[in-house]
Amino acid sequence: MAKGAVSGRFHLKESEYGITTGSAATAAALAALLSINGSITEVEIKTPLGDLNVLVEHSEKLNTYSGRASVIKFPYNDPDVTKNIEIFADLIITETSGVIINGGDGVGTVTKPGLQIPVGEPAINPTPREMIISNLQKNLPEGKGAEVIITVPGGKELAKRTLNPRLGIVDGISILGTTGFARSMNLKSYKTSYRCQIDVAVAEGYKDLVFVPGNIGEKIAKRILDVNSDQIIQMGNFVGYMLEEASKEGVNRITLLGHAGKLIKISASIFNTKHSIADGRREVISVHSALSGANKEFIMKIYESNTTEEMIILLEKQNLVIPVFNSIAESIKHICSERFKMEFDCMIVNMNGDVLNNNYNKS
């Protein structure tokens, strides 16, 4: 079996499934405990979905009451940035019952309210905490407890490639997972990570938010709008999901700001803007060009264009940029307000960050 691979009742295929950081931390903690009585190469942990066998990368007895172990979060078919990381656990048996879990180097610390973990605590989510506690308690000597420190070498740098800095989780990654298993291309987990931004913003009292597709939109928003960083929410391609979650949390008003190539899809009621899911950009701009008075020959040029930026250049030559994008922005605001019962504003930009419509709230 490959290093770090899982086995057990599920007979999981490595290419399709992996283990969560929570399972890796749990397995490392259990291996650290068991290593006090000898070297450990594999452990069986209990997860919310059942038993899971995890190979141990390293284990050692430190003294009569402590041990150390690590587990590799083995690769699987997913863009997860935590693939192949090594998660360590240092454990000390205590005379007092109960399990205390701390985060060491490479594990983030929560600094903002609204997340599942209180401010000041290590970013080890509830399910991984419960898994670590329950798996250790089954194997601790009677009447004894344990103190565990989870560390992730390189976690501080790795966290820069995650949403943690936006969520107020500093100096490391989060230990996550709700089932113990990481499924390839798990949209649910991606969506949940985006949604946490809304939780943080609402917890800080913001009811007027700016939704952007990603990093580029966020940079533009910071440059042209007078808003705080926590009011800017990256929604990725999950426009419909994020707007629905915001409406559930009582958000009053949302400004949609982003590149034309993403935002104009919303005017066609496309609420997942991933290119492989749906496109419609040339159709949208063609229709709104027609509504703005363009002739058939020009509309054909728009329709035959390959990129949104190319279409924008054509519109500029005909002095149609503002009319067309005003029309698209009105359509976006109308469709969103009907569906989500919030107030909406819309700012559509090009790659340089220039706003292409002028029918937005300038206050």
Automatic annotation (TrEMBL):
For this UniProt entry, the molecular function terms from Gene Ontology, in alphabetical order, are: methyltransferase activity
Q: What class of enzyme is it?
A: transferase
* Enzyme nomenclature, EC number: 2.1.1.195
Q: In which pathway does it act?
A: Cofactor biosynthesis; adenosylcobalamin biosynthesis; cob(II)yrinate a,c-diamide from sirohydrochlorin (anaerobic route): step 6/10
Sorted alphabetically, which keywords does the UniProt record give?
Answer: Cobalamin biosynthesis, Methyltransferase, S-adenosyl-L-methionine, Transferase
State whether keyword Heme applies.
Answer: no
Q: Which GO terms describe its biological process?
A: anaerobic cobalamin biosynthetic process; methylation
Q: Which SUPFAM superfamilies match?
A: CbiD-like
Quote the catalytic activity from the record: Co-precorrin-5B + S-adenosyl-L-methionine = Co-precorrin-6A + S-adenosyl-L-homocysteine
Q: Which family is annotated?
A: Belongs to the CbiD family.
Name of the protein described by the UniProt record: Cobalt-precorrin-5B C(1)-methyltransferase
Species whose genome carries this gene? Methanobacterium spitsbergense
